[in-house]
Design goal:
Layout lengths: L5 E5 L4 H4 L4 H6 L5 E5 L2 H10 L3 E2 L5 E2 L1 H4 L8
């Protein structure tokens, strides 16, 4: 049986809120990257949106803190 898997690792692209963090800071503080795992890409994006992430068509993403969204609410 062949099983497909997709992972989506998200970092927040909001420069003013996270401008002083380097990639190593993102990883060491435990906040980023946020990883979503699913069978298809659309499953991962749906999980991210339910967690409060805003995903834009140009590839940018905003974390729940920057969007003001609460986890568990569709955005």
């Amino acid at each position: 049986m062949i099983v497909g898997c997709y992972t989506l690792d998200l970092y927040c692209d909001n420069k003013p809120a996270h401008q002083y963090l380097w990639i190593s800071d993102y990883m060491s503080d435990g906040k980023f990257p946020v990883q979503f795992i699913g069978e298809r890409g659309c499953d991962c994006r749906q999980q991210a949106r339910k967690a409060g992430w805003k995903l834009m068509r140009d590839g940018r993403a905003l974390c729940p803190r920057c969007t003001g969204a609460k986890a568990g609410r569709d955005v």
